[in-house]
Amino acid sequence: MNSLHEAFAQAAALVASGDPALVDIVLLSLRVSLSAVCIATLIGLPIGAAIGVGRFPGRRALIVVLNALMGLPPVVVGLLVYLLLSRAGPLGELGILFTPAAMVIAQSILILPIIAALARQAIEDAWTEYQEQLRSLGAGRLSAAFTLLRDTRFSLLTAVLAGFGRAAAEVGAVMIVGGNIDGVTRVMTTAIALETSKGDLPLALGLGVILISLVLILNAAAYLTKEAAQRRYG
Amino acid sequence: MRAPSSILPLALVEVTFAAGGRTIVDAITCEIGPSARTVIVGPNGAGKSVLMRLCHGLLAPTTGRIEWRGAGASAVGRRQAMVFQRPVMLRRSAQANIEYALALHGVPRRDRWALARDALGRVGLGHLAERPARVLSGGEQQRLAIARAWALRPEVLFLDEPTASLDPTATREIEAAIDAIHASGTKIVMTTHNLGQARRLADEILFLHQGRLVERAPAIRFFTSPATAEAAAFIKGELPWT
């Protein structure tokens, strides 16, 4: 109890002090995770829509695989990206291992299945409802997919948020491909892991409080947006 | 807008539709010609809605053929529209819902706004044009669905139980809109299980029973002297006071 209390006090003090090193860590966390969300959204939503309205052999197997990939272990993703980017690896010439770019790549891969699978479910449900009407109006599958992406935009926001939550919270992938280098690739989760192992529990907890608060604020904002939009558009 | 040559008549040749081991539409052969308002009646489960979807092209017959035999039949997809029992509206304004349908039909962007406004005005929804379609009442949404279909200037308009879930006032408004569409020269084909509505709107009746076309007759004759026992029983059951 005592250390929790101390942690909150320290978190408040940390935020109040505006310590530039801390601000850098928080900003890098946001930059990496939000970049990964953007990339995974741009790729994942079209994939989800295509599987949602598509009819092709192996579709059901693909859905099962996609759903299973939602549970990808971050350390495994980190390891795979590490192997790809390491000097001997196929993409070693890029020289981006232990940079934020590598972390963005790893997190994008990690959350792509989450966004695609949740989008697939939302789009498919909507397709069941809209299918006859859209076909009657003369929409082909491709144009229907775009229409559904637009019409389910509020549900898709939830999918994107789930992806962000996962990216912001994971530690294994960014630790392996980023290396937790102070001032370069140290993000909140890797900093928490490091401080904990060093025994500085208040600082670790303080960082944890900041991390949870950020995720909470983003989710609250998205929820309110979604609610207002649903009241407006039905 | 209207292309010169008609897509009608619509011919059904031994059309059968089966699903899940059940025959829903059973060897129906008939020809639907222009002008008259054709109303398909029958008890629940008679196959009315499935027949409508077969004609519209949403379902393919299990056996048999559906042919548009008019000279303009090559463009049949764009020359017919359908209004469903429960309209599906997109999450955008009433106006934008109609513009969306116009866009799918290849209407140039500059013409869409005016055509959509015109269609909304015809069903008395001009004042709700900018309202999100999904927050409109059930009756308003169905009028919007009719406006959306009308804006496409179809030669044939299918309506599947368009008033089944509406109150009497909304039903009257829908019937008035259907009358107006008919008056503008569009062929009406609709289903209803409401015989009062069939009486008010029909020129000719197709009576379906257990997936088969049991009787086809001009509306007046169907209601006064049905030729088959099934039709007589149906009319008696639905309109016991006559």
Which term fits the overall shape of chain B? globular
> Which CATH class of chain B is shown?
Alpha Beta
The total count of helices of chain A amounts to 10
CATH class of chain A: Mainly Alpha
Query: Could you tell me the strand content of chain A as a percent range?
Result: under 5%
Number of domains of chain A: 1
CATH fold name of chain A: MetI-like fold
Structural class by SSE content of chain B: alpha/beta
- What's the story with the biggest beta sheet of chain A? none
Total DSSP helices of chain B = 8
Q: What would the average pLDDT of chain A be, to the nearest integer? A: 91
Q: Topology as H/E string of chain B? A: EEEHEEHHHEHEHEEHH
Output the strand order for the largest sheet of chain B: 5-6-7-3-8-9
Span between N and C termini of chain A? 46 Å
Task: Tell me about this structure.
- Chain A has 234 residues and is mostly helical.
- Chain A has a single domain, classed as MetI-like fold (Orthogonal Bundle).
- Helices cover 81% and strands 0% of the residues of chain A.
- Chain A contains ten helices and no strands.
- In chain A, helix 2 crosses helix 6, helix 3 packs antiparallel against helix 5 and helix 4 packs across helix 5.
- The longest helix of chain A has 38 residues.
- Chain A is globular, with a radius of gyration of 20 Å.
- Chain A starts with a helix and ends with a helix.
- The model of chain A has no long low-confidence stretch (mean pLDDT 91).
- With 242 residues, chain B is of the alpha/beta class.
- Chain B has one domain: 3-Layer(aba) Sandwich (Rossmann fold).
- Chain B is built from eight helices and nine strands.
- In chain B, the strands form two sheets. In chain B, strands 5-6-7-3-8-9 form a six-stranded mixed beta sheet, sandwiched between helices. A three-stranded antiparallel beta sheet of chain B has the order 2-1-4, with helices on one face.
- In chain B, helix 2 packs parallel to helix 4, helix 3 packs across helix 4 and helix 4 packs parallel to helix 5.
- At the A-B interface, helix 5 and helix 6 of A face helix 2 of B.
